[in-house]
Write a sequence for this structure.
């Protein structure tokens, strides 16, 4: 089958009406649709289920992996930051514990400590001692802050209340970001002093910037008010407020999905660092995180699409092919059934005709003899000798009997299974002989007769008389159907499998489709009034069958009629016919 | 001289009608509706012609013809048939039938044939007589 046949198969335009009461059995479009839908559902549903499962499993896996990675990074960073601050706080506490606190008022000692801290820990800018009234008693560092009053400031109060204080990052008097660690120390039972150190944020920032983050990820600190404390890649400048709300307080690492902007959601790992105002945040846009998943999803999608397309295409072709096969089988079967029906009908009509003719012949003979006797009696009897009317009646009876006899003889001729006298004949000569009988009529009615015998045809072994009779019947039939001035074509062409195709084509009145099926039946005549017996074509049909041929007719009302029959070229092919 | 004819057909009506018509034409006609009886009649009497129906119930006209020809080879048989096929006709002629007429038969045609049959019979009989005479002359020389 051609590709075109697969996509626009023959059955698509099949006539549903001809199927009669079993319409649904022969509704090939419906069968095709059913077939196609079942095939597609059966093949696509598992594909879709698998794709869906794979899609979800991958998404969940990648999401949880991302969450886990975010949590780990956040947790590590939190520990690093907390440790950094804890370390420095502990250093200050150690100094306070070890040293006699009075010596702090000696500036040289304080200076020694500062340089020791700078060397060992790094990041310290200055040190100061503040008494319980908030006055800075001693100070070493780049700024001259000795004697500065801190009383009333929040950090001082908190340090006095809680013992330690870690500030968030701020600009302060110095106009550079820094943070403050303060430790309270009791000099005796009731009195205390506060040891205060200022830290540079460079080192602090270094912890975060040294993190090995994937592309697009951002790690920074904010304070409890949501102000960004360390440089951020894309979440805003230092000391600006973050664009999203702070997550709920938790000292344990948590990962959350937060909508940053309308079209940008991000996975945020965060942790409040205990004892400090800091919150560590690791922000990664979801699009980046899910990029891998999206890529695999895309691959999955296009592989699925291609598979679906291929499946649809193949299923379409398979359904078309199968239904087309069914269609062809059905068509062949119904054609054969029709042919068989036709043959059977013709055969039984033949038997019937022979039987009827024979049965009628006997009573006809009796009628004939009785009528003859009657006539004889009248002839020999003086009394009726002169009665013309009686003779007329008897002659009419005898005439009718003769007519009946002719009909029964022709009927018997239709069903006769005579011996066929096979001899090689030239089709051209047969046609010419037949036409020579009819030439006069053709000339008289100015009918144009054309004979087309293919040049490669030589001899055919058949019964010449019968072939002549067949052609004569067909041609004189055609003459009757045509008006004066018509055209008749007699053609002989090579057929398939060693057969010759004869055809007689006229441009006469044509035969209506309803009559076409019955024209070979005996007594089927449309010219009953004009004296036709309706036996001519049935006898012709019988003759063609005797010659091992088959006869068909095509006709269109008003266009003309074409009778064609094919005969085997040599009698050994007869059996195939 | 009146022709002596035997008419064999299973249809009584037909036989009677035809016989009467032939008698009107000056022939001497015997009828018989039973083919077996007909064989006896043929043996018992001498006919110029036998008109025999080809198809009778139970008996084939051809069989009857064979029997007649076996015993009386010179007998002229005209076959009548309602179902004339060329095959049957040829078979009948081969078996020695004189002629073959289709039903319904024309009385004039039939009469013609009977006359011919009688003529042939006459010739045959004359030949036979001649032969006998010759025989007698040869063997019983005075």
């Amino acid at each position: 089958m051609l590709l075109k046949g697969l996509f626009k198969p023959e059955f698509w335009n099949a006539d549903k009406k001809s199927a009669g009461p079993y319409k649904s059995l022969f509704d090939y479009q419906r069968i095709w649709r059913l077939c196609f839908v079942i095939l597609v559902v059966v093949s696509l549903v598992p594909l879709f289920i698998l794709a869906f499962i794979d899609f979800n499993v991958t998404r969940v896996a990648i999401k949880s992996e991302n969450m886990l990675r975010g949590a780990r990074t956040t947790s590590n960073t939190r520990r690093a930051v907390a440790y950094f601050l804890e370390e420095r706080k502990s250093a200050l506490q150690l100094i306070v514990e070890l040293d006699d606190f009075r010596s702090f008022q000696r500036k040289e000692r304080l200076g020694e400590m500062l340089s020791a801290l700078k060397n060992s820990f790094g990041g310290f800018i200055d040190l100061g001692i503040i008494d319980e009234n908030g006055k800075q008693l001693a100070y070493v560092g780049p700024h001259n802050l000795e004697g500065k009053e801190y009383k009333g400031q929040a950090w001082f109060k908190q340090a006095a209340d809680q013992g330690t204080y870690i500030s968030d990052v701020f600009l302060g008097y110095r106009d550079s970001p820094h943070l403050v660690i303060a430790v309270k120390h009791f000099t005796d039972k009731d009195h205390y002093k506060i040891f205060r150190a200022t830290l540079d944020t460079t080192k602090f920032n270094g912890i975060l910037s040294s993190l090995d983050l994937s592309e697009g990820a951002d790690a920074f600190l904010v304070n409890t008010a949501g102000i960004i404390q360390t440089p951020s890649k894309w979440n805003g400048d230092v000391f600006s407020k973050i664009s999203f709300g702070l997550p709920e307080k938790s000292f344990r690492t948590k990962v959350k999905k937060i909508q940053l902007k309308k079209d940008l959601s991000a996975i945020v790992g965060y942790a409040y660092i205990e004892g400090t105002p800091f919150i560590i945040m690791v922000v990664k846009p979801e699009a980046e995180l899910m990029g891998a998943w999206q890529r695999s999803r895309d691959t999955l999608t296009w592989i699925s699409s291609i598979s679906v397309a291929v499946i649809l295409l193949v299923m379409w072709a398979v359904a078309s092919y199968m239904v087309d096969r069914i269609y062809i089988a059905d068509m062949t079967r119904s054609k054969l059934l029709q042919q068989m029906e036709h043959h059977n009908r013709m055969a039984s009509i033949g038997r019937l005709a022979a039987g009827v003719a024979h049965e009628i012949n006997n009573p006809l003979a009796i009628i004939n003899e009785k009528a003859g006797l009657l006539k004889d009696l009248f002839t020999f009897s003086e009394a009726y000798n002169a009665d013309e009317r009686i003779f007329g009646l008897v002659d009419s009876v005898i005439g009718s009997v003769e007519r009946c006899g002719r009909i029964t003889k022709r009927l018997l001729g239709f069903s006769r299974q005579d011996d066929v006298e096979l001899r090689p004949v030239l089709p051209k000569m047969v046609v010419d002989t037949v036409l020579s009988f009819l030439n006069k009529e053709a000339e008289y009615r100015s009918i144009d007769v054309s004979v087309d015998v293919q040049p490669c045809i030589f001899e055919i072994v058949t019964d010449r008389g019968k072939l002549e009779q067949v052609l004569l019947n067909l041609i004189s039939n055609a003459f009757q159907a045509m008006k004066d001035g018509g055209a008749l074509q007699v053609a002989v062409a090579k057929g398939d499998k060693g057969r010759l195709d004869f055809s007689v084509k006229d441009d006469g009145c044509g035969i209506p489709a309803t009559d076409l099926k019955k024209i070979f039946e005996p007594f089927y005549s449309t010219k009953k009034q004009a004296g036709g017996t309706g036996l001519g074509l049935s006898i012709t049909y019988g003759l063609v069958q005797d010659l091992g041929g088959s006869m068909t007719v095509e006709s269109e009302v008003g266009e003309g009629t074409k009778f064609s029959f094919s005969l085997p070229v040599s009698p050994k092919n007869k059996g195939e016919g | 001289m009146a022709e002596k004819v035997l008419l064999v057909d299973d249809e009584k009506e037909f036989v009677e009608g035809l016989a009467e018509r032939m008698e009107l034409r000056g022939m001497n006609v015997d009828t018989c509706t039973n083919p077996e009886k007909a064989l006896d009649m043929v043996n018992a009497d001498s006919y110029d012609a036998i008109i025999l129906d080809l198809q009778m119930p139970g008996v084939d006209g051809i069989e009857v013809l064979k029997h007649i020809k076996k015993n009386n080879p010179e007998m002229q048989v005209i076959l009548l048939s309602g179902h004339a096929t060329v095959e049957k006709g040829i078979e009948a002629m081969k078996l020695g039938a004189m002629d073959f007429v289709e039903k319904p038969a024309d009385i004039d045609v039939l009469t013609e044939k009977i006359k011919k049959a009688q003529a042939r019979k006459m010739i045959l009989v004359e030949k036979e007589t001649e032969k006998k005479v010759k025989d007698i002359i040869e063997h019983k020389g005075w």
Remarks:
- Chain B has a mean pLDDT of 83.
- Helices of chain B lie at 12-24, 35-44, 61-71, 86-94, 107-139.
- The interface with chain A takes residues 11, 13-14, 17-18, 20-21, 24-25, 55, 82-87, 102-105, 107 of chain B (CB under 8 Å).
